[in-house]
Amino acid sequence: MALELGGLLGAASSLTTAFGKEKSLKSFLSTLNSFGVQNKARFEVNFSGLEDVTFFVRTITTPGVKQNIGTVYYDGVVVEVPINYEYEHDFSMTVLNDSSGYIFSTVTSFLLNDASSGVTNTGYTMTVKAIGDNYSKGGVITLNGVRFKTCSGLNFSYDDGGISTFDLGCSAIDFNSSPGQLSKAGGVINAIKSLAG
Questions:
Q1: CA trace torsion 182, 94, 189, 42 (10° rounding)
Q2: Given this model, what pLDDT does residue 51 score?
């Protein structure tokens, strides 16, 4: 007997959560239909600690949040109970370097000066702007208390004529996410369009 998509959607739509709210594959697909999907190549990053230097990243992986669970034994059954939540702190990004090495030297100097400071500043913020399109405004992830922890070296090779990059290992105290806070095109996209036009 073949499983039909209609049967699957019907079964999923009949599921309810512990709070009695209906959750289903149908409502998930409805959300994607309303807002579209996020293109992972449309984003820009800003860091408050280096306001005089604009740097662009090839990739960034933002931290997540997890819920800690405790185990309770009741009537011979193991029950997992949520206790608290905690933010993950570590994240990384791959930064595009310029041809003179100015961005790399600025970032490494910032890291070394921050490490030798008697009182370190935890007030740095980083914003990751997920740029929207004609259907969605995108969103903003704000990372608070950002610190650069590691900076890789630059790789040079005669075998590869690609763009020079370096990796930054970072941490953040916490973060918040704000959906729908952007216009349909962000600063990088507009800057590129203005240079082309």
A1: -60
A2: 77
